[in-house]
Task: inverse folding
């Protein structure tokens, strides 16, 4: 069996991956809150854990891996969006969930085995909360149920902080219904205009963290292998998930390996609406950036390093993928190169795996290149991005010819007029402008010929019109 090593946030070291049960390797990844299009940063965990999913399927067999990624469809940001737009909550969550599926599919991500929605697990959440109250880890106050953080001695282990440091550092809300500022909400009351479900504590809705404890328990059990998400979720979300799960199911170990991807930046800066560099995956796709290019750029940086999205990287990725593509299926028998598996088995060295594709291309091993790229989520046989690029090049060529022929006609006309008037100033002006646009102007007794050179600048020619 291939040895896989993964960096575990819990131990802060790379560990050899040993699943509880190798006939069913289990992974849970925190999914999106569905109130808007996924931004480019949201795509990072999707692509990172998709590669891990592919590796696990390769090593343990596709029928021996269960990957769960949830959809958070009850959350106050969704309520706010509904209030702002006058749309219903279910209208917003249904549409946004479908957008998420479509956009992630465009990035070559496989569908997880299970995509549970939080709203489908409300009774199970109530059951877990009741259990936490019964064993002293939670309490009810004014229709709220809170987790008693001081009752769980291990709290803070994942993020490596003590509860006292957290209180000093964080802006924790000191609500009147809390015994301790660190206590967090498991259940809260809903007013008539908020989504609510009947519960032993009145009509209300869950806090954010309980859903992942419940859905991972229902679908994977009290002990499972890998839990993933972006690094920003380490505290408080994952810390709270651990507290809830380990206190509700003391005999289980919850997740054994905690994996977190670093954040995405844009041109060296944090992506944010106020900096004007915020964009969604759909924005990029609509601008003509192929999903394969986004995937390639993401995989060229290790998941535990901050990753910088730049236009330059996207252009380079498109060139590389175009160079590797081919028009027809290669001869049969292509294999995923073992060095790709070796690279990914070393804590997901995706850059190393892309380098192997480059080597296969150099060696002319087309069948292996196509099979290996397909394994990594890239379709290189007659891909749409190459067809699109060719169509774009052909249309540019046609437009260039049109521009050149219009200027040839104009030049000949000005020249004929100048011959009669002996005033060549207009002809000279046009000639200088054409030369400035990188065009060689060849004049003979039959007329003019315009030949674009290597420094041909189409925009300058267009500006002449
Ligand atoms: P959210 O919908 O905000 O809960 O985020 C969904 C997923 O995207 C979580 O795993 C986050 O950690 C991850 N995420 C959010 N922003 C970024 C970012 N800038 N870079 C990488 N991952 C991110
Ligand atoms: Zn979660």
Result:
């Amino acid at each position: 069996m291939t040895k896989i090593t993964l960096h575990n946030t819990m131990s802060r070291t790379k560990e050899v991956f040993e699943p509880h049960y190798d006939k069913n390797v289990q992974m849970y990844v925190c999914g999106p809150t569905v109130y808007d299009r996924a931004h480019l940063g949201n795509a990072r965990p999707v692509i990172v854990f998709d590669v891990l999913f592919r590796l696990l399927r390769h090593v343990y067999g596709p029928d021996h891996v269960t990957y769960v990624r949830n959809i958070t469809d009850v959350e106050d940001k969704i309520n706010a969006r509904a209030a702002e737009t006058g749309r219903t909550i279910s209208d917003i969550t249904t549409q946004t969930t479908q957008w998420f599926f479509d956009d992630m599919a465009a990035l070559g991500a496989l569908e997880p085995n299970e995509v549970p929605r939080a709203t489908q697990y409300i009774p199970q959440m109530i059951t877990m909360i009741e259990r936490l109250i019964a064993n002293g880890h939670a309490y009810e106050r004014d229709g709220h149920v809170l987790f008693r953080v001081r009752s769980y001695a291990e709290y803070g282990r994942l993020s490596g902080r003590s509860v006292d440091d957290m209180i000093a550092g964080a802006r924790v809300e000191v609500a009147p219904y809390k015994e301790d500022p660190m206590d967090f909400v498991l259940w809260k009351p809903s007013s008539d205009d908020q989504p609510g479900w009947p519960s032993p504590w009145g009509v209300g809705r869950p806090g954010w963290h309980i859903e992942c404890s419940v859905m991972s328990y229902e679908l994977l059990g009290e002990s499972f292998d890998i839990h993933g998400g972006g690094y920003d979720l380490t505290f408080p979300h994952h810390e709270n998930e651990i507290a809830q799960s380990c206190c509700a199911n003391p005999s289980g170990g919850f997740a054994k390996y905690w994996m977190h991807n670093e954040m995405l930046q844009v041109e060296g800066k944090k992506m944010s609406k106020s900096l004007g560099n915020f964009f969604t995956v759909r924005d990029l796709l609509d601008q003509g950036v192929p999903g394969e290019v986004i995937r390639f750029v993401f995989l060229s940086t290790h998941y535990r390093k901050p990753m910088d999205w730049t236009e330059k990287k996207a252009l380079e990725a498109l060139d590389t993928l175009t160079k590797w593509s081919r028009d027809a299926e290669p001869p049969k028998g292509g294999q995923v190169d073992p060095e790709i598996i070796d690279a990914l088995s070393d804590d997901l060295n995706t850059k190393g795996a892309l380098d192997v594709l480059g080597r296969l291309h150099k060696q002319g091993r087309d069948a292996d290149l196509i099979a290996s790229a397909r394994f990594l989520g890239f379709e290189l046989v007659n891909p749409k991005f190459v067809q699109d690029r060719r169509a774009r090049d052909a249309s540019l060529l046609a437009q260039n010819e049109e521009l050149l022929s219009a200027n040839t006609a104009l030049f000949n006309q000005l020249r004929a007029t100048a011959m009669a008037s002996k005033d060549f100033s207009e002809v000279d002006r046009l000639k200088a402008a054409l030369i400035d646009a990188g065009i060689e102007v060849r004049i003979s007794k039959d007329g003019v010929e315009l030949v674009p050179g290597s420094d041909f600048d189409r925009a300058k020619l267009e500006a002449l019109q």
